[in-house]
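Lab notebook, bench 4. The sequencing result for the construct came back, and we need a structural model before the next group meeting so we can plan mutations. Quick request posted to the team channel:

Model the 3D structure of this chain.
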Amino acid sequence: MTEWRVNIREAGFPLPEAIILRVPSAPIGFVRKLCKKQRVVVGGMVGNINQTVQFGEHIFIKSSDRWHELLQHSPIQPAEILYEDTECLVLNKPSGLAVHNSQGHDDNLKSRLQVFLHQRREIFQLAPIHRLDAGTSGAILFGKGKKATGQLGQVLMAGRMNKRYLALVQGVVVEAGELTTPVLAKGRMKPALTRFRPIDDNGWATLLELELVTGRRHQIRKQLFEAGWPIIGDSRYHNKSTVTAGRLLLHCRFLAYQNPVSNRMIEIDSPLPEDFIAELRRLGFPTHGILEFIPQNTAT
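Done. Here's the predicted structure in C-alpha cell form:
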C-alpha cells in the first residue's frame, strides 16, 4: 500500500493527474486503469477517475508488481513530499543521503529532485534553503526558482523560520535549558543558540527535542558533544559516546515558515522514520508513548 496526503500543489487536479504529480514516471493510461480497477482509495472511498482531489485528503494505492516497479525507478517516493506549492517544496530527507553534490555524494537529494522535476516537465531550478547533514533525516525546504529561493532565504536569515529536531543522546538530561557555546563558522567562533527539553530517558540515554535558533554548521552536534551529551550514531563526534547505531539519531521533525508570496503560514511535521524508531526500540525506549507525543502527519 502506498499512501500520501494531498497538498496545495495537487488540490483541484483530477485524480489521475494528481497521482502523476507524485509518480511522474507512471504512464497516464496505467494510472487510469488503477482507478477503474478500484485500486485507488481517496478519503476512505474508492477513487473515481473523474473526481478532483481536495487538500488534506489521503490517497491510498493498492500495490501491484507494475506499481512497485514504477516506485523502484522513481527518484522521489510519494510520501517523501511533505508539502508543495508554487514557491516551495518540502521533502522528508532520509538519513545517509547528502543534500548537495560533493565528493563521494554524486547521488544526492538535489540531483534526485531535479530528475523528478524533469519527469514532470518542469524546468525551473531548485535550491535548498537550509542545511541538513547527510546523516540527519527530516524536513528540508527547497525554493522553486531564483526569486522564490531568494525570498525564502531572507525569511531564514531574518530568523522567521522555526526548526525543531529530535536527537537521542548519551547521558541523562533531567530538565529543559539552552546550549550557548559558540560554534566555529567561516574561520571565526560565532554565537549559537539551541533550546532543548527532554522527552524521555532509559536511565543512560535521553530523547531530546531541540529548537535551532541560530543555524551554524553542525551546531546541534557540536553543542551537544561539548555539553557531554553526544548524539548516538554520530561518527564525527563519537569519542565521548560508547554507543553505536545504524545511523545518526538526529531528525528534523518540524518546520514552520511564512510563504513570502501568499503570506500563508506553513507548518510541517516530518514523521519519524522507521530506522530511527527501530533504533529507539533496540535501545530499550517505549516507542508507543514516544510516538504518541511526536506528530506523525506529513503536512498541514
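The CA atoms of residues 80 and 92 lie 5 Å apart.
Will bring this to the meeting.
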